[in-house]
Each structure stands twice: as structure tokens, then as C-alpha cells.
Amino acid sequence: MNKSDFLYLLLGTSYASFKFAKRYISNDLVPEFRYDIELNISNDDPNLTQFTIYPEDNGKKYFNLEDKEVVAILCRNNKVPVWIDISVSKSDNEKTILSLLCAGRYTSDKNELYYNESGSGPFGIKSPNLPYGYKEGIKFKL
Fold first, then answer.
1. Residue 9 domain-assigned?
2. How many CB atoms lie within 10 A of CB 27?
3. What domain of life (predicted)?
4. Residue 33 has what pLDDT?
5. Which ranges of the chain would DSSP assign to H, the alpha helix?
6. How many domains, in total, are found in the chain?
7. What is the mean pLDDT of residues 114-129?
């Protein structure tokens, strides 16, 4: 996947995640996005041969990134993580922070991307972290 295609998917799923989060949270969200990334949370076996794996990514986290910085980190040699869970995690009056939890397996094969059939490539839109005791239909603050 080239960087411009990845950026397109990132921006589209960011907006979709933003809209989805409004069902759950009472915060006033603004459509100015920044990203927190957690790499290789799947802790994949470096001996896998079907995918490219970067064991040096274990435990790496990045905070408050702009979209182009995300692309530079996650799109490597036209390969991207096979799945990236995206969700709203924080907000203030100036920006909405989206969390990107990333698999450690990278591929250039679109058929290997978990959410490709739904049109979002590697991105799976998730709800914000629900608070303890969450009751369906009652909005909460982040």
C-alpha cells in the first residue's frame, strides 16, 4: 500500500471513528485529529515468514502525532500493519486524540488486511474505552 492510499484510509476512518464515538461520549469533539500509536501489541513471533515483523517496535509508543507523521511511521516499504484498531481516546477544545493500536505483522498484500472487505484496509473502528459500570445509551466523559 502506498503512502497516499494509507493516508486516505487513515483520514476516512478517523472521521468515521469520530462520528462513532459521539454515540458514547458527552465531550464536545472537534474534527482536528492527532494520534497516539502503540506498535506491535500483537507481539508476533519474529520467525514468521509470511509477514515483515519489526521486533525493535516492541513497547514503542508515540503521542500527539499529525496524520503525515503516522503515515511515516506505519507505512514502511509499501507495507502496513495487518490490523490497526482506531478509537477516540481523549479530547480537548482544540483536538481529538485517536488511539491506534497496531499489529506487529506488516504486509503489502491487501488481502491480508483484516478490514479490507469493509473498505477500511487495516483499520478497525472501535468504541472509546467504556468506563466501569457502563450502561448502554448513557453517554460518558472521556
1. yes
2. 19
3. Bacteria
4. 98
5. 3-21, 67-74
6. 1
7. 95
Within 13 A of 48's CA, how many CA atoms are on the CB side? 15
| Mean pLDDT of all residues in 56-65 | 95
Average pLDDT estimate for 33-51? 89
Q: Which of 70, 76, 83, 78 is nearest to 122 (CA)?
A: 83
Helix, strand, coil % in the chain, rounded to nearest 5: 25, 30, 45
CA 43 to chain centre: 17
Query: What angle separates helix 3-21 from helix 67-74, to the nearest 10 degrees?
Result: 120
Question: Which residues span the domain enclosing 48?
Answer: 3-125
Pairwise CA distance, residues 101 & 84, whole Å: 5
Global pTM value = 0.95
Residue 103 lies in a domain: yes
User: Which grid coordinates are listed for 79?
Assistant: 507495507
Structure confidence by residue, pLDDT tens digits, 72-96: 999 999 999 999 999 999 999 999 9
Q: Which residue has the cell 487513515?
A: 10
